Amino acid sequence: xxxxxxxxxxxxxxxxxxxxAVQGVSLHVGKGQIVTLLGTNGAGKTTTxxxxxxxxxxxxxxxxxxxxxxxxxxxxxxxxxQVTACGIVLVxxxxxxxxxxxxxxxLQVPRAAKGAEPRRLLERTYEYFPALTxxxxxxxxxxxxxxxxxxxxxxxxxxxxxxxxxxxxxxxxAPLVVDELMRRLQSIRDELGMTILLxxxxxxxxxxxxxxxxxxxxxxxxxxGDPGRLRSHQDxxxxxxxxxxGSRRSYRDVKQYRRSRRWYG
Amino acid sequence: xxxxxxxGYFRTGYGGEIALLDTRxxxxxxxxxxxxxxxxxxxxxxxxxxxxxxxxxxVVGAVALMLLTGFAGQVSLGHAGLLAAGAFTTGVLFKxxxxxxxxxxxxxxLTGAALGVVFGLPSLxxxxxxxxxxTLALHFIVIYAGNEYETRRGFSTGVVIDxxxxxxxxxxxxxxxxxxxxxxxxxxxxxALNLLRANTGRxxxxxxGREAVAEALGINVPAYKVxxxxxxxxxxxxxxxxxxxxRGFVSAEAFSLFLTIQYVAMVIIGxxxxxxxxxxxxxxxxxxxxxxxxxxxxxxxxxxxxxxxxAVNYAAFGLVMILFLVFEPQGLVGIWRRIQNYFxxxxxxxxxxxxxx
Amino acid sequence: MQLxxxxxxxxxxxxxxxxxYVLIYRVSRVLNLAHGELMMLGAYGLFATASLFSGHPLLAxxxxxxxxxxxxxxxxxxxxxxxxxxxxxxxxxTTIALGILLRGAMILVWxxxxxxxxxxxxxxxxxxxxxDARISTVSAVLILTTAAVYAGLHLFLHYTSWGIRMRAAGQxxxxxxxxxxxxxxxYALAWxxxxxxxxxxxxxxxxxxxxxxxxxxxxxxxxxxxxxxGLDSLVGALIGSLIVATAEVLLIYYVDxxxxxxxxxxxxxxxxxxxPWGLFxxxxxxxxx
Lengths: 265, 357, 289
Fold this sequence. Notes:
Largest sheet of chain C: 2 strands, antiparallel
Oligomer: heterotrimer
CATH class of chain C: Mainly Alpha
Number of helices of chain A: 11
Structural class of chain A: alpha/beta
Radius of gyration of chain C: 18 Å
CATH topology of the domain at 1-79 and 210-265 in chain A: Rossmann fold
Radius of gyration of chain A: 19 Å
Strand order of the largest sheet of chain A: 6-7-8-3-9-10
Helix content of chain C: over 70%
Strand content of chain C: under 5%
Largest interface: B-C, 44 and 42 residues
Number of strands of chain C: 2
Structural class of chain C: mainly alpha
CATH architecture of chain C: Orthogonal Bundle
CATH class of the domain at 1-79 and 210-265 in chain A: Alpha Beta
Number of domains of chain C: 1
Shape of chain C: globular
Shape of chain A: globular
CATH superfamily of the domain at 1-79 and 210-265 in chain A: P-loop containing nucleotide triphosphate hydrolases
Strand order of the largest sheet of chain C: 1-2
Number of helices of chain C: 13
Distance between the termini of chain A: 25 Å
Largest sheet of chain A: 6 strands, mixed
Strand content of chain A: 25-35%
Number of strands of chain A: 10
CATH architecture of the domain at 1-79 and 210-265 in chain A: 3-Layer(aba) Sandwich
């Protein structure tokens, strides 16, 4: 059993003092695991990530209940640079690179935790993403989606993190590219012992690489388990994996609109 | 904006919503205040009267700037230029054609309106910082034009103007000026309040809040933006004309960038988004130099300071402005509302949150 | 020929002053309208150190320059840091208020009398001939200093880690913070560098033309040069300074000497109408405000 690196306990996040976005979310991430948090738009995934990485303050949101603990240290409501200093680095969904800087400059910006050697970290990044080597002098704004995502993960690696928070890696990318990136994440986990919390909408691909998964809906965790269990769950199959029984049906037959989901199975 | 009532809001109709005065207490208070204002000039203190006159003059300009920056959200650093425009229109017309005040006043207003269009056009393309910079540039250009006039026509020390006259009666007495200026100040405050509770005010608030949404709601954003500039600068030019007559003297030097900053300070220190703020700010900034001068004489300050009062003034003014910007962004109105709330809500501390569960 | 020399000198002045505007704007989106006063403070600093270290002019200059750097950083740490995250306009108004405060304070300390730091240093003004034109030695030094400063800044911003981090923080402060870059440190550094270059400009201008209240006007006139070039581009500041200086010198000579203080603002207005983000500025800047 892997020791728990990150524990989120009954987290509640409130926006503008009146809107509860996330309620009673509990999850834990063991060291060296890839844990995935799945959900549709507006489920509360990004809010949870923001609560962990310290970005809530800007949106006038606060953690009103519960806790975020990292190696027994309480992290909720702390500013981003402190969270980074603890070894948690975010791979954001939007505004992920410095557009007007070259790839090489982008990789020079991050400040690694104390003790890490920048040159070694840079070599490591280029090892995992060799495509970046030939793109060194290109301005980040001109990179394609997949190249950009590689740059983001690479620059996150330059901070020498222990826990990587990845927000919607697959958004807007071709399946082949997503595959490739997921495989890289797995290598990073295997070779560097990195722990990864993967927030995703694409359940199929996420469940392929993850060791454990949580489903979040309307701000609550509704199901969790290892990928096998999740994949075989009927509701997951229908709502997240797109499987349906038999021939085409009209919308009226779709369970989603006929009954509320039952998560007990 | 609704007045704070201790236990809730009691509007029952639209008329009540836009009424200027709600309770009998407010009406009584205003009546008492009006009585004080009318009785003031009969208290024999000519220095005080001059002070109050200056405050009243400032109120007109402050209200104008508050409408533009505080409500419509259009930043303007060109206020002194507009004041100068009004003053110079008066001066030029007087010197060149000997025009009387009932010609120069509307002429100043017209100049103001025309300049308002010019100052307002950049606002269609620019916002915030860049808009402020464009108004700053326009200010310098207006001042340059004033300087050119002075130099070309040989009035290097400024243009002297006769006081306004109606027939045989000449407006020189400070008391008479008081009532004239009080009339103008009250009129501009009332005008502003009325404008704000009408369509124009609501359109401005919408534009200030979120321009794209205002546009989507069918508000003609460009027209209202330019209208804000035009109304504001017309009022400001009228203030400039009054300045010219009150001082009897027009000179480009008087309309420096510092004057603009003083008006911006009035609006900020008073509290953005409130006509009361404009008045409070005007009072504060106008009286401030006198306060400083008094403090220099009363407190043990270095002797050199007494000789360089204007420098102490500058430094103190800058300091106070910084303090308000950093610690009290809502200005004097914010402080006033806090005090008001404390007494209205006692022994409770917080207003009920609207829409809380 | 004399006209060309005058243009070059004026352009160098504007360029040296406006790189301060660009540095701070690029990094923190704040327009430092106290730059003119900080320039003057640098010049008064030199005047003070010249008397303190009389007989060691180079030491006086070095100490004054270092003081300027420190003062800039301190202005950020004690004042502007509180405005970080607030509306940009509030921060700009704060710099205006700071400028007013500084101006008053400087008069109180040093009086409004014109001072001559050059003489206090022990130098006397001289001039050299270039063709059939004359240029004062100080002005020549100023042109060289501007070139050196720009070269140095370019190297710093493009080839050192902290320079790259500074550019990154200017583009995407949130991402920079998340990558471990301390934003307050970057902003303090930007303010320090800007005040350093401004102080240098102030010292040189004061050595050439004497130190009095008109220096602030020069600071204000250099701002259009920065904006014409694009408020976040150093190259733009150079080109913008050249354009504004050319317009000013030519118009004064051929049209009307009184125009001197207003020409930069005509150019500014023209640029705002045609291309608000300047020649080399990034277009996105416009939406940020």
